[in-house]
From TrEMBL, chains A, B:
<keyword id="KW-0847">Vitamin C</keyword>
<dbReference type="InterPro" id="IPR020611">
    <property type="entry name" value="Cu2_ascorb_mOase_CS-1"/>
</dbReference>
<keyword id="KW-1133">Transmembrane helix</keyword>
<dbReference type="InterPro" id="IPR028460">
    <property type="entry name" value="Tbh/DBH"/>
</dbReference>
<dbReference type="InterPro" id="IPR036939">
    <property type="entry name" value="Cu2_ascorb_mOase_N_sf"/>
</dbReference>
<dbReference type="Pfam" id="PF03712">
    <property type="entry name" value="Cu2_monoox_C"/>
</dbReference>
<dbReference type="InterPro" id="IPR000323">
    <property type="entry name" value="Cu2_ascorb_mOase_N"/>
</dbReference>
<feature type="domain" description="DOMON">
    <location>
        <begin position="59"/>
        <end position="175"/>
    </location>
</feature>
<comment type="function">
    <text>Catalyzes the hydroxylation of dopamine to noradrenaline (also known as norepinephrine), and is thus vital for regulation of these neurotransmitters.</text>
</comment>
<keyword id="KW-0325">Glycoprotein</keyword>
<dbReference type="InterPro" id="IPR008977">
    <property type="entry name" value="PHM/PNGase_F_dom_sf"/>
</dbReference>
<keyword id="KW-0503">Monooxygenase</keyword>
<dbReference type="GO" id="GO:0004500">
    <property type="term" value="F:dopamine beta-monooxygenase activity"/>
</dbReference>
<dbReference type="InterPro" id="IPR045266">
    <property type="entry name" value="DOH_DOMON"/>
</dbReference>
<dbReference type="GO" id="GO:0034466">
    <property type="term" value="C:chromaffin granule lumen"/>
</dbReference>
<keyword id="KW-0968">Cytoplasmic vesicle</keyword>
<feature type="region of interest" description="Disordered">
    <location>
        <begin position="589"/>
        <end position="620"/>
    </location>
</feature>
Length: 620, 620
């Protein structure tokens, strides 16, 4: 684990320096933090930086990091395999280079500097008045230059990115030419890109693994990665005939060496037990040659995305597979992301399942929370952040959960392309109690199963409220709910134990109230929205003239109208009871936004670049 | 002007200290800021603290202050005439003791301390982790103890109050018993109160005054202040017969010595020229004996409220009075605030008008912006911050303003009892350009005419948008627009030159669209809202069932429906043109919230109380 104490310069002069920040170029020499740059050194221990991800598609930049919850800080180790004249590394809301928070290493050809900077809405770089990316060291090794630096989750500097749970969009840019100052860097001309990671990995302890644990690899059979940017590859695998019930207790990625930057995410699905057999297949998922029946292989057994590590089930539970009533057929899906269109790359990546015949006390289950897939939940076009909410009501959990409750230990958030944020909150007696999972920088391109920091106990009578935020600024007609990629979903697949019959606890607005809305829009605006009963709900949404009143009233409708609740044993079988025109759960007490923990300002360094003794750059 | 440099302790130890704030009680002795307390001293010069206000009704606490715009800080001098065991002084959103930002002087009977504290939502006091009320000195004088301290406008500490333009609610509390620590102070048991002031007085230079300037006092004739909390006193005065046209170029308060804490505000109104004479009157404004005709004396000549200083017209303009077409009759109105119910206090306060016969280039005028007084603009009950907006449209200013434009130099905001915030913004070509006047802590009990920091130029085609925020949490039925004290207004009286014919530039929602709203509410909710045409708009509002949908849709209506514009020469005479069903001005660019200027943290002191050498307290 990195020690940050090394990095602290004398705080007294630095403090005074901050007051005269504008003069720093003349004064800085007196207060330099001279870094000892070891020109040779041993490779850092793997355990120091347990998480690793390539930043660029060629893997020239490789980021490793660890998370210190006691320090509320992330320690980064950035390996630069070919250093030219520096690089930018940082974070921004959705991976853009504007309004980004950046650590910059730059060289004028003679000297090199490191500094904390931010980019404004036009992409212009500025030195940050408070230096919160703290350089801890730089080290040359045969494989390249290692930069070590530290960043607190929250700096309380409004120019800085707040590192939160969920997705973080990392950005990088490579300086190909010398620059005389930070301000001279032209961000728009940089060779750069973005990488999504879950930076704040939960620090949960690894459960005890049993002695009789076995493993099974579900991997692609030496696939030639297609020379196109995006490929979803499908490969069918089978469990042995008569394979009895086991518990999957862990799984981990198997990524072919050299392809770390190409394998974007992988999932193993189990097929439906209704069919005796499934055809073999090994090819792109969108191929016309793909057998229709593969669409019935949708039950998630394992999911991995770039940057994720092994997934462990809690000690008390495992995911059942094998045995009677369970299909032998598995589908492996790999998303290859190949933006540089490499040709002829071969890949045998996949997922290694670890399982045991000694069944754990509980089967784990997966429950779907959020919105029903129905066009009655729609988003007007041109919205920058439109909110839809799905409810799992007290009535449903009262009926379907055991009195001892269930424990949610992992969650996978899901929307289609317009999704920007997803959050599920647990409420009890109308009071929000706990966030189940939240992602304020959610991307539909990065849907991992995430272990929760804390297991969430849900009891009969609790409510689970899932809220999705959408951006439809690039669309000209309404986006309705549905299965299509241009339709939308709002789903949280929660992984829990003990398994119950409740597979689906979701909602949608009452269709009768939506009809009243169409009527109201029609009358209020003197416009002809076709109300003929034979016209579909999507058609009615498409014909609405989207003025501010019609937008606002749709929001008001969704915040007021009763709901239809799907409290289902499977997608088609409801629990007995009245589920139509249910009242919206009323929340009387909201969770507070956590107030950011600001580091004492002594920890931050003044607004001056830190010179590095790297010698002449451009070594290639 | 106070020098703050004296107050800065060595910043190095204080910085380290902040890191170990929790240990401060043991460590503090090493880092004391020992204050030199002069036990005798000369009175401070008046000019050091030009603004003065009594805090309590007895005048035992007297606050003087100055404003340093270069330093972005206020320097306070608090005179405590009878010090017991300390006091609290501070600021909060609306004068409450919860969520307040406080400077506290307390004594355990032996030693005295000063510290920056905050109170939580339950009124519990906490030492602030950043000490932003900076003690500059303490001094005994024959009249009492003077405390001198400094506070930056903005500290960037989320626990601190942000000092903004407009009303500031000051609070004070007196410690009657010794306390052992700050945390031991029971805020709810304190003898305390609130005082409203405009803390950030504009620093505008005083215009040159002419040699022939004369003055005239309009003062109460030795009135016995009634022994009740609130009295509005009315006194009729007359200008001499044949008094020719003059320009009022300045006025100032005349407050009877000893009554500084009782005279809350005063206004001089000119009566309507339509009547040849007005009856004499000297008595309470709400008396049955008050002649009906006094209601026609409503044209404001001068207005003063506690804490305000002299009011100066700009050098180019004066307020016309006297001469043909102008009434000789004036009404002085004084609000006596006598919460301790003193008996037999005599008062001869009033306003001294300074005027000149040498007319200045321009007559000043007063224009009314905001909402028309009509019930169509209504606020649902139980709202904590409901917003209504009135528009002075481009079409009206195009028609009514001279091509050289007008200059607004002062403003008086006005609502009835539910008003909480008022702001007027100037927009040009749909872009917000400038705040004309804003008060985020507006109180209907503190309606001063305020000189603007900067004169605002308004040209033909500009829009003036006035937005009021209301709180109706204590009401059970809708609050409609109107003249009644329980009805509402949203008005900004702007003082400008050169005078034009435009007296009133206001708006209200189109009544036809409001009818559609009533219709829609009726149909959507399956409720019986009486739509019979003979039922008044207030009655229709009173019968609405106020669910979230009806509330939201009313907001949407006000944000969407066309408006009826009153672009009037006087309250009854419109400029020619079509003023019904006008489009709402569309604003494409909002003004940014100013980002607060945070002082370098070196300026603030660590979280430790500062001991004072005051000797044993309770000298009486």
């Amino acid at each position: 684990r990195m020690q940050s104490s090394r990095s602290k310069p004398c705080s007294c002069p630095s403090l005074k320096l901050r007051e005269v920040a504008s003069m720093y170029f003349t004064l800085v020499a007196a207060f330099l933090v001279i870094l000892v740059v070891a020109l040779q050194g041993s490779a850092p221990r793997q355990s120091d930086f347990p998480y690793k991800v390539p930043l660029d598609p060629q893997g020239l930049l490789e980021l490793s990091w660890n998370v210190s919850y006691p320090e509320q800080a992330v320690h980064f180790q950035l390996l630069i395999r070919e250093l030219h004249f520096g690089l930018l590394f940082g974070m921004s809301d959705r991976g853009e280079f504007e309004n980004a928070d950046l650590a910059v290493l730059w060289s004028d050809g003679h000297s090199s500097y490191f500094g904390d900077a931010w980019s404004d809405a036009k992409g212009q770089l500025h030195m940050d008045s408070q230096q919160d990316y703290q350089l801890l060291g730089a080290r040359r090794a045969p494989e390249g230059l290692y930069l070590l630096f530290r960043r607190a989750f929250s700096t309380c500097d409004p120019k800085d990115y707040l590192i939160e749970d969920g997705t973080v969009h990392l950005i990088y840019g490579i300086l190909e030419k010398p620059v005389h100052s930070l301000q001279a860097i032209n961000v728009s001309a940089l060779h750069g890109g973005l990488q999504r990671v879950q930076l704040l990995k939960p620090n949960i302890s690894i459960p005890q693994l049993p002695r009789d644990m076995k493993s099974m690899e579900i991997t692609a059979p030496d696939v030639v990665i297609p020379s196109q940017e995006t490929t979803y590859w499908c490969y069918m695998a089978e469990l042995p005939e008569g394979f009895p019930k086991h518990h999957i207790i862990m799984y981990e990625p198997v990524v072919t060496a050299g392809n770390e930057a190409l394998v974007h995410h992988m999932e193993v699905f189990q097929c439906a037990a209704d069919f005796d057999s499934f055809p073999r297949y090994n090819g792109p998922c969108d191929s016309k040659m793909k057998p229709e029946r593969l669409n019935y292989c949708r039950h998630v057994l394992a999911a991995w995305a770039m940057g994720a590590q092994a997934f462990y089930y809690p000690e008390e539970a495992g995911l059942a597979f094998g045995g009677p009533g369970s299909s032998r057929y598995l589908r492996l899906e790999i998303h290859y992301h190949n933006p540089l269109v490499f040709k002829g790359r071969r890949d045998s990546s996949g997922i290694r399942l670890y399982y045991t015949a000694t069944l754990r006390p509980y089967d784990a289950g997966i429950m779907e929370l959020g919105l029903v897939y129905t066009p009655v939940m729609a988003i007007p076009p041109g919205e920058d952040s439109f909110i839809l909410t799905g409810y799992c009501t007290d009535k449903c959990t009262q009926l379907a959960l055991p009195s001892a409750g269930i424990r949610i230990f992992a969650s996978q958030l899901h929307t289609h392309l317009a999704g920007r944020k997803v959050v599920t909150v647990l409420a009890r007696h109308g009071r929000e109690r706990q966030v189940v999972n939240a992602d304020s920088h959610y991307s539909p391109h990065f849907q991992e199963i995430r272990m929760l920091k804390e297991v969430v106990a849900v009891f009969p009578g609790d409510e689970l409220i899932t809220t999705c935020t959408y951006n439809t600024e690039d669309r000209s007609r309404a986006t309705v709910g549905g299965f299509g990629i241009l339709e939308e979903m709002c789903v949280n697949y929660v992984h829990y134990y003990p398994q119950t019959q409740l597979e689906l606890c979701k909602s949608a607005v009452d269709p009768g109230y939506l009809r009243r809305y169409f009527n109201l829009v029609n009358r209020f605006n003197d416009e002809e929205v076709c109300m003929c009963p034979q016209v579909s709900v999507p058609q009615q949404f498409y014909s609405i003239p989207w003025n501010t009143f019609n937008r606002d009233v749709l929001k008001s409708l969704y915040g007021f109208a009763p709901i239809s609740v799907h409290c289902n044993k499977s997608s088609a079988v409801r629990f007995p009871g009245e589920w139509e025109k249910q009242p919206l759960p009323s929340i009387t007490e909201r969770l507070r936004e956590p107030s950011p923990h600001c580091p004492p300002s002594a920890g931050a360094q003044p607004a001056a670049p830190v010179p590095l003794h790297l010698g002449q750059l451009r070594r290639d």
